[in-house]
Design a protein that fits this description.
Layout: H1 3-40
Length: 62
Amino acid sequence: MDVSAVSASALTNVQSQAALLMQRKAQDIAASNAAQLIEALPQPAAAPDPNATVGGKIDVFV
C-alpha cells in the first residue's frame, strides 16, 4: 500500500472528525443562545377575569 494513500486517508478521517466536533460545538452554542433568549422574554400579563363587572354591559339609549 502506498504511504501517501494511507496518509491521505488518515488526513480525511481527521478532517471529518474535526468538522463533526465543530458542528456539535456550534449546535451547543446555538442551543445555549436560544435558551438565554427564551429566559429573557417577559412574562405574559395575567388574563382579565371574565366575571368582572367592569365593561361587561353596554347601556344603549334609543
